[in-house]
Design brief:
- Helices cover 74% and strands 0% of the residues.
- By secondary structure, it is mainly alpha-helical.
- It folds into two domains: 118 residues, no CATH class; 40 residues.
- Helix 4 packs parallel to helix 9, helix 7 packs antiparallel against helix 8 and helix 7 packs across helix 9.
Length: 187
């Protein structure tokens, strides 16, 4: 894009109220670092995975309902107490510690659910007509990432679709977090 077409967008971006987030919000900074790394990757798989990592970084954990948290708190206490019966480093102690970590991890909603909710919320605030579509793209990219990571491969059509979905959703989310409606800047 010629600089004379890009300059007004840069000027507007530098005057945005949300710009300070790019410096103070660690998750946002990391997402921008991943966005930059994405442009240096060579393989489509690496590009795709880098973009989905950015989506994951930008999705803050969302706690489950209080009823579910109460159960995880009780299980955590029981497991912590049970661990005292075994020597640190023993198979039994390590197994209970592993289970305790899993239980505590379950206090939050799934990454997929948190991702969908966050993208929907942020993009809707900036560009309401795009929120549902962008959230669906982010979830589709996350689902395809799961297939790639857990199966070790992804068909070329799915990889291409996932890459496009991840690229569009990361771009829209980053822009929306800064208060820029994604449709205002060329893709």
């Amino acid at each position: 894009m010629p600089i004379d077409r890009l300059a007004p967008h840069i000027e507007r971006a530098l005057n945005l109220d949300g710009l300070q987030l790019a410096y103070t919000d660690e998750r946002l900074r990391l997402a921008f670092e991943l966005w930059t790394a994405y442009h240096r990757e060579h393989s489509l798989r690496a590009k795709f995975l880098t973009l989905v990592m950015a989506l994951e970084v930008l999705s803050p954990p969302i706690s489950k309902h209080e009823v579910a948290i109460a159960f995880t708190d009780r299980w955590n206490a029981e497991l912590t107490a049970a661990m005292q019966d075994f020597a640190r480093g023993s198979d039994e102690h390590d197994a209970l510690e592993s289970l305790r970590r899993e239980v505590c991890f379950r206090r939050d909603r799934s990454i997929r659910g948190a991702l969908r909710a966050h993208v929907l919320n942020v993009v809707n605030q900036c560009e309401p007509e795009s929120g549902t579509r962008i959230a669906a793209l982010a979830v589709r990219a996350y689902d395809l990432r799961g297939a790639l990571v857990h199966e070790g491969r992804l068909g070329s059509a799915d990889l291409s679709e996932g890459h496009q979905a991840a690229r569009e959703s990361v771009r829209a989310l980053l822009l929306a977090m800064l208060g820029i409606p994604p449709r205002l800047l060329p893709a």
